[in-house]
Amino acid sequence: MDSRDSREDPEQRSGLWQPLRSGPPLTTCSPLTTPDQDLTNLTNQQCGPPRPAALPPRSPALPLRAEVHPSTPLLPPQTHSQGIMVDVTKWPLFSLMGPQELSTILKACVFGTSANEAIYITSDDEVYVFGLNCSNCLGTGDSQSTVVPKKLDFLSGRKVVSLSYGSGPHVLLATEDGELFAWGHNGYSQLGNGTTNQGVAPVIVSANLLNKKVTEVACGSHHSMALTDSGEVYAWGYNNCGQVGSGSTANQPTPRRVSSCLQNKVAVSIVCGQTSSLAVVDNGEVYGWGYNGNGQLGLGNNGNQLTPCRLMALQGLCVQQIVSGYAHSLALTDEGLLYAWGANTYGQLGTGNKSNQLSPVQIMTEKERIVEVAACHSTHTSAAKTQSGQVFMWGQCRGQSIVLPHLTHFTCTDDVFACFATPSVMWKLLSMEHDDFLTVAQSLKKEFDNPETADLKFCVDGKYIYVHKAVLKIRCEHFRSMFQSHWNEDMKEVIEIDQFSYPVYRSFLEFLYTDDVELSPEDAIGLLDLATSYCENRLKRLCQHIIKRGITVENAFSLLSAAVRYDAEDLEEFCFKFCVNHLTEVTQTAAFWQIDGNLLKDFICRASRCGAFKN
Prior knowledge:
This protein is of the alpha+beta class. About 20% of the residues lie in helices and about 25% in strands.
């Protein structure tokens, strides 16, 4: 809208507009709430991590941050990431990125109190971060937040296999070579470097891990764990409830092997709750230690454990995958059976009530085989996926307490956390290893104008456009009729087109492959003509949208004339209002004096009824 005049926006003014032809006129989630009510005794026992005095106070609107930990079950669960492209667009933070940037993402993690920080890895193993940068958790070397992704050069070329974060937040990252990196909040030595100095950039964690190859990492609120390729578990950081498993409640400044009854066991997976820890060993046994005030260790009591204890209630079962929420846990067996225990204030156990469970109870017994479970220690949300691909959710979902697993229309458990968790973090490192995989839509787009696979070509303005008859017949009724056996065109290998220009016809054919149109407003007029001739109503609407966005004082009357000619009433209304709102300017353009006389008369009559010529 012209700022020099107090005129109305062309899309807002309705007035007395009539078409220039005969006929009738057209017509966040709230922040993470306080923990389970059952967790109040955690504060009384000082098992909730206090804020270090040396750190600046955090805004009351920003509760504790989250952790995410990919699990490594005995048998890989049939996750959605096997065979489809990674989709991060469901998380609002990634809406700041363009399609080209998004197409390079191979792995990603969204974290933070309001899902306001992100890290992603590209297909060429470059690591980028963006977001709020609380406690230097982006690792950029400074405390500045950024909406523009920044590359972490120190991690370039290193293949990331595991990533996790805590509540400060602090971040742990393991590479394919077995190296462990840490940065961010360090008030309790959760970075494992022997100090409490904040980590402003990624640093290798080497203390007690020399010649060890780390394969998986997990973070609690302010403690950390690492799993090696030999099945050893190391833990360090905040230890007020025994979550480090050292036999005491003294904080652990550097990685220390968790021994006790795990000494001669081979661990295959580790997870953390806020102040608790769990591990699965190679024979499917589960061990837990740390805070147990809500029964999240599944031991049949609510006493804290300073060293690992086996969950005897799961004896005889082979656990394949285990996950932890804020104060609850889920275990999936190799037979597809699902067990839950711990806090249940929001129904996160899926038992049909809100009573805590001190021992594992089987849930979803009437459902088919479960192949994946999901939980994240920053939320009270749970999710599961069945063998047929059905996705269920329960617990705290956008403020509602869902006490029984609810069937959704999602295709993966990640969608539950993107759309219903508070905060909407990723429950694991979202990953897609098949970087050469193309969806059906991507494959079709790639084959447009490809002479190697085409069985037909159009000649327009002396230039060829290569296409596939089958695609054209599927996508367009005009071509379906054209390629019938009684039409001459059905036998041709080259079809001459002289009614439309090359840019217009190529855009039309490309639209049939991609559903997208990229044209200037002037060329879009020609495509609008084609869409009208071929009865392609959706394409017609797309053309009108392009024209609306490209309208200027210079081309307004040309576009108005085209809208009338092609019977595009909505576009005609838009162009008419634009011309009225910029009447002085548009009447001085060449396009105004070139329009048809009858159209000019109709325009003047309609404009006068709208009061355009009042003093």
